[in-house]
TrEMBL record:
Record protein name field: Cell division protein ZapE
GO CC annotations, alphabetized: cytoplasm
Entry keyword annotation includes Lipid biosynthesis: no
Keyword annotations of the record: ATP-binding, Cell cycle, Cell division, Nucleotide-binding
Organism: Paramicrobacterium humi
GO molecular function term, any single one: ATP binding
InterPro entries the record matches: ATPase_AFG1-like, P-loop_NTPase
Alphabetized Pfam families for the sequence: AFG1_ATPase (PF03969)
Biased amino acid composition, Basic and acidic residues: 1-10
Record's keyword annotation contains Electron transport: no
Classification of source organism: Bacteria, Bacillati, Actinomycetota, Actinomycetes, Micrococcales
């Protein structure tokens, strides 16, 4: 099949039903997280989140106990760290540990798409009453959407909902190892006092075992791989790189999950350097969904991790591009 032939549509109900951890983290747990012993903050984060998942502890009665009352636990937790340290795994583990049935997990863009589909009041109505809202990749580079989400989350916290979030890096924040807690807290301003910040140090786990570049084949090898996979019953998509990039411009990123639905192998021919930052950012969003689904990728042309220009890599979205490069290396190693 060809992804470029697909025109996915998603109703509000579809968007809401998809607010669960992606397949890659369908069974994520605190026990399955493997803290790096060289970075104690990873184990400390697990310990805190285990306590957070148990909910607020009731205060004991009595005059003296009231005088010594411990500070009330904050209803929000923010996981701060570079990419590849397991923030999404821990966020999904927290979601799975939450005993309530009214809980949601999604990326920032999925929540904003929900508001777009239902309207602000409709989104508030749907999410009110939930016990936990998990937001992965909270976007700090769109002031309008950030303000809207801050308002939405403020209403939910006031009704008793607890929050957990991670974020990306805002424009002009260079360096893959940069932490973003202060940027996050500043951008959500009125809501910042509701969050406890957990700093998670570490190195990108994908690069612990994956080095070099994304694997690149020639066109004939890609075609052979596609034919062999299809012959074995694997559902394969095959598209030209330029065609795919052009098609992504006509599909809202919230629908990328539907664009790749059912595919078991993604094949792309003619990969080249991108000359448009808008196209590059759409590719990043697409790769995020492919990575969530853990779909192997075969590609011809230049290695996929070389599609971003030096100007892009030294600009405001550096961290997004580096995360995508790391994921593309991992995805082509799965083939």
């Amino acid at each position: 099949m060809h992804l470029t032939d697909r025109r996915p549509e998603m109703s509000a109900e579809d968007l809401a039903s998809n607010l669960v951890p992606p397949p890659q983290f369908a069974h994520a747990s605190f026990d399955s997280y493997r803290p790096d012993p060289d970075y104690p903050s990873q184990q400390a984060a697990v310990d805190y989140l285990r306590s957070f998942s148990a909910g607020p502890k009731p205060q004991k009665g009595g005059f003296f106990s009231r005088r010594r009352k411990e500070p009330e636990a904050k209803p929000g937790v923010y996981l701060d760290g570079g990419f590849g340290v397991g923030k999404t795994h821990l966020l999904a583990a927290l979601w799975h540990a939450e005993p309530g049935t009214r809980k949601y997990f999604g990326t920032f863009i999925e929540y904003t798409a929900l508001v777009g589909a239902l309207g602000y009041a409709g989104a508030v109505k749907l999410l009110t009453g939930s016990t936990l809202i998990c937001i992965d990749e909270f976007e700090l580079d769109d002031p309008g959407d950030t303000m809207m989400m801050t308002r939405l989350l403020t209403e939910l916290v006031s009704s008793g909902t607890r929050l957990a979030a991670t974020s990306n890096t805002p424009p002009n924040a260079l360096g893959e190892g940069r932490f973003a807690a202060q940027d996050f807290l500043r951008e959500i301003h009125s809501l910042s006092s509701q969050f406890e910040t957990l700093r998670i140090d570490g190195t990108d786990y994908r690069r612990r075992s994956v080095e070099g570049h994304a694997r690149a084949l020639d066109d004939d090898a890609v075609r052979e791989r596609v034919d062999a996979a299809a012959a074995s019953g694997t559902v394969v998509s095959l598209d030209g790189f330029d065609d795919l990039i052009a098609h992504l411009a006509h599909v809202h990123p919230s629908r990328f999950v539907k664009l790749i639905e059912g595919a078991e192998l993604i094949a792309v021919q003619g990969v080249r350097v991108l000359d448009s930052q808008a196209a590059a950012l759409r590719l990043v969003a697409f790769i995020d969904r492919v990575y969530d689904a853990q779909l192997p990728v075969v590609a011809s042309g230049i290695p996929l991790d070389e599609v971003f220009t030096d100007e892009m890599l030294n600009g405001g979205f550096r961290k997004k591009y580096l995360r995508a490069m790391s994921r593309m290396i991992a995805l082509t190693e799965q083939q």
